[in-house]
Design a protein that fits this description.
Number of helices: 15
InterPro entries: FAD-bd, FAD-dep_Monooxygenase_BioMet, FAD/NAD-bd_sf
Organism: Mucor saturninus
Bound molecules: flavin-adenine dinucleotide
Strand content: 15-25%
Domain FAD-binding: 5-358
Largest sheet: 8 strands, mixed
Structural class: alpha/beta
Family: Belongs to the paxM FAD-dependent monooxygenase family.
Number of strands: 18
Radius of gyration: 22 Å
Protein name: FAD-binding domain-containing protein
């Protein structure tokens, strides 16, 4: 008989809330401790690829999310100077046809709200204003800044790139985020302001995810909020804080690197009245994901923060959550928590480390200076598109990773739930699951 254990999740971002859903579905007692006064996200968009929309569907959330989502037709890679499309990857309905689940765009605040509602409706407790100050590996407990102590059978650090919980998992070394040269400026513009301007209104005739790529900088833009807002992320060399999402960005610094970009996107940028900036960073592969005591682990950015150039950070947090949900649904003893966490690390680490590495490489590919390499890149992308058009089932190599015939199915076709179930069967077959102890709770 599987038992119920008590779980503390530190951090109520996308990863923490998703883990709360997965572990409640597995029957456990779940408390989320969120440090902020309220659950919030930056006023920006997020792309949800099929490898995570599949999991959201398994949890019964896809229909609700669909009400808030935008379904992009294409991912267009454009030449920075004139906006000409170099490569167009068809997203909807093609990815759904290929992988069974759609690629969509959503406002982060809507996403967080949906996940939070789903977690609390099935019985997770979500506490805000609960900032964790200290984590005790030996006692599997945390102490908040206000002195309150919580103890559990398992603690999960979902507290982002500057994770506090990580210091309890790897106490011997301070893991600093690796700052990239670039920071991201994020902004939104009402779609009506774009639709009212005949020079740029065509950008919203169809819903697409558009990228303008140039030397060391790029712009990503797509509609969110059912098409009512246009979300824009600008990535270029600069300085910004790593401690807060919403440092206010100077508008001149935001626009200046793009003066040589397509006049169309410059017209869009001229409509931005405020922006937020954030240093783009990742973390190096960690020496371990499970604490020495064996009852604390990490998920999401706390475990494997990555650059956003594959739009997979949150998707990987969802996969982590689903994996833990499947594995821990079969736990028979509190003493076997370490075995399950080690299995979780074993399953997840190779995949996320490959995605971290490829995200970094995708950035290099986009940010080439004009010249031979850039010309060869653009030619290869165009040729890949042509070959795919001629034979849609051909495995075509592309410098654009999410279009590449090998990488795309590996990335988007991944079934995190099945992988976890198979690993669990294997573990059971090998007799590695303990059956003796009862939960502390
Ligand atoms: C520009 C940009 C674009 C991106 N686009 C995409 C995309 O399109 N698709 C995608 O999948 N990913 C994308 N990502 C990545 C994605 O945003 C992150 O990977 C994801 O938000 C990580 O979620 P998380 O829950 O692990 O961490 P976070 O979102 O950082 O959440 C951590 C939470 O923990 C809380 N917290 C921190 N410390 C404590 C503490 N001591 N006590 C209690 N609570 C604490 C914080 O308040 C926060 O709520 C993008 C990232 C960037 C920078």
């Amino acid at each position: 008989m599987a038992i119920k254990i008590s779980v503390l999740i530190v951090g109520g971002g996308i990863g923490g809330l998703a883990t709360a859903i997965a572990l409640r579905r597995a029957g456990h007692h779940v408390t989320v401790l969120e440090g902020a006064r309220e659950l919030s996200e930056v006023g920006a968009g997020i792309q949800i690829p099929p490898n995570s929309s599949y999991i959201l569907d398994t949890w019964g959330l896809l229909e609700k999310i669909k009400e808030k989502a935008v379904w992009p037709e294409h991912m267009n890679i454009r030449r920075y100077a004139n906006g000409k499309v170099i490569s167009a990857t068809r997203l909807n309905p093609d990815l759904e046809d290929k992988y069974g689940y759609p690629y969509f765009l959503i406002h982060r605040a809507d996403y967080i709200q949906l996940l939070c509602n789903a977690a609390t409706e099935i019985g997770a407790e979500v506490l805000v204003n609960a900032k964790v100050k200290y984590i005790d590996d030996a006692k599997t407990s945390v102490r908040l800044h206000n002195g309150t102590v919580f103890t559990a059978d398992l603690i999960i650090g979902a507290d982002g790139i500057r994770s506090k919980v990580r210091t309890a998992v790897i106490p011997e070394k301070v893991i600093e985020p690796r700052r990239s040269d670039n920071c991201a400026y994020r902004a939104t513009v009402p779609a009506a302001a774009i639709q009212a301007d005949s020079e740029i209104s065509h950008l919203l005739e169809n819903h697409n995810s558009d990228f303008w790529i140039g030397h060391r900088c790029h712009i990503v833009a797509y509609p969110i909020k059912g098409g009512k807002l246009y979300n824009i992320v600008m990535s270029h060399p600069g300085e910004a804080s790593l401690t807060q999402w919403n440092e206010s960005g100077n508008l001149y610094e935001m626009k200046e690197p793009y003066l040589k970009f397509d006049p169309i996107i410059n017209k869009v940028l001229s409509k931005i009245t405020q922006s937020q900036k954030w240093t783009l960073a990742d973390i190096p592969p960690l020496s371990r994901w499970v604490s020495c005591g064996g009852h604390i682990t990490l998920i999401g950015d706390a475990a494997h923060a990555m650059l956003p150039h594959l739009a997979q950070g949150a998707a990987q947090a969802i996969e982590d959550a689903a994996t833990l949900g499947v594995l821990l649904s079969q736990i028979h003893s509190v003493d076997s928590v370490p075995d399950f966490l080690n299995l979780y690390e074993q399953i997840r680490r190779p995949r996320v480390e490959r995605i971290q590495k490829n995200s970094l490489e995708n950035g290099y590919t986009w940010h080439l200076p004009d010249g031979e390499e850039q010309i060869a890149r653009d030619k290869a992308m165009r040729e890949a598109d042509e070959l795919r058009k001629a034979n849609s089932s051909a495995k075509v190599e592309s410098p654009l990773q999410w279009s590449d015939g090998d990488f795309q199915p590996w990335l988007y076709g991944h079934d995190a739930i099945l992988v976890a179930k198979k690993a669990l069967q294997e573990m059971t077959r090998n007799g590695q699951i303990g059956f003796q102890e009862k939960s502390k709770f």
